[in-house]
Amino acid sequence: MELRELASFLAVVEEGRFARAAARLFLSPPAVTAHVQRLERDLGVRLLERSPLRLTEAGRRFVPHARAALAAVDAAADAVADLRGDDDGAFRVGVMGHGSAELTPAIVRAFRQARPGVRLTIMPLDFTEHVSALVERKVDVAFVRPAPDDDRIASDVLTTEPRIVGVPADGPVAEAGALRLADVLDLPIVAVPDITPSVFTDYLYFTPAVNGERGRRGPDVARHPQDVMLSIAAGRTVGSALRSFARFYAWPGVRYVPILDAPWDSSVLATRRGDTDPRVAAFRAIAAALARDLGPLVSAGPGDHPELVRGASGGLDSLEP
């Protein structure tokens, strides 16, 4: 029995539908279904009737215990949270892909200079850990994209950039000066695991911009940028990204093409909402200062004027009220 299985079960109970539970947890409906099925197998009883969706007698008995188990885990973490000082335990920085471009190493360096007594570790995150790495306390802060849509997470926008698509260098669109979203939907976009949060898959596939239309999915499944690059170079898929991605992932056999009508999107520093750890507050403050000073230059591409880059005059755009 795993915590995520308990969380999926309770979300279905509280939302009344697998689809709504999946959206709340930033998972796919099949992933939530699988969690509930594994929980039922582990317990040896059926917790939910599916048609219509309702609790069984076993499910009704199990609900308060599932809630108590999750509450106990949260309480255990909170009980020791105030004991974490600058010298107690590592401060864990999660980074998905290239994070927030050049801002990521600049922020880490500045934090280490400001707080030399803090032992800092950097932890790579894959696409499925967009939210879970923070919620499950695997990391203390995380450079991810786009902003998580989760009440438990606070997000500070660090860069706002145009979108691009990586394509095989010998493919039919490699020489195109630019593409439109309609063109991208006709290309085989790399797939991601079913447990990938929906906010990240929506970003990857431009779901809001194309009114939910489902484009083609390629034959390969990727968890990391390296997986995407290998698939593109092999001529099997294409992959979408922020423009700064091209600077960090120059890959033989891959070319990058701008997408003219794709909405710009952001990279963010994500933290647990309400986290009182002074190291988190210091890290966010440093990130805010550097995003204000360096963000426009990072977001701008070759030949761009920083003052014309969206958000350049607004400094840090915090999504936390």
- Class derived from helix and strand content: alpha/beta
Rg, rounded, reads 21 Å
Low-confidence stretches: 305-321
Q: With helices defined by DSSP (H or I, 4 residues minimum), what is the helix count?
A: 11
Written as H for each helix and E for each strand, in order along the chain, the element string is HHHEEHEHEHEEEHEHEHEHEEHE
* Helical fraction: 25-40%
What fraction of the residues are assigned to beta strands by DSSP? Answer: 15-25%
Mean pLDDT: 86
The gross shape turns out to be: flat
**Total beta strand runs:** 13
What topology, given as strand order, has the largest sheet? 4-3-5-12-6-13
> Could you give the distance between the termini?
36 Å
What kind of sheet is the major sheet?
6 strands, mixed
List the helices and strands and how they pair.
Blueprint (H helix, E strand, L loop, with lengths): L2 H13 L2 H8 L3 H15 L4 E3 L2 E3 L1 H25 L9 E6 L6 H12 L5 E6 L6 H4 L5 E4 L8 E9 L1 E6 L12 H5 L3 E3 L6 H8 L11 E5 L3 H9 L5 E4 L2 H4 L5 E5 L6 E8 L5 H22 L17 E2 L3
Parallel strand pairs: 3-4, 3-5, 8-9
Antiparallel strand pairs: 1-2, 5-12, 6-12, 6-13, 7-10, 7-11
Question: What can you tell me about this protein's structure?
Answer:
The protein is of the alpha/beta class and 321 residues long. The chain contains eleven helices and 13 strands. It has a six-stranded mixed β-sheet with strand order 4-3-5-12-6-13. A hairpin with a 2-residue loop joins strand 1 (48-50) and strand 2 (53-55). Helix 1 (3-15) crosses helix 2 and helix 1 (3-15) packs across helix 4. The two termini are 36 Å apart.
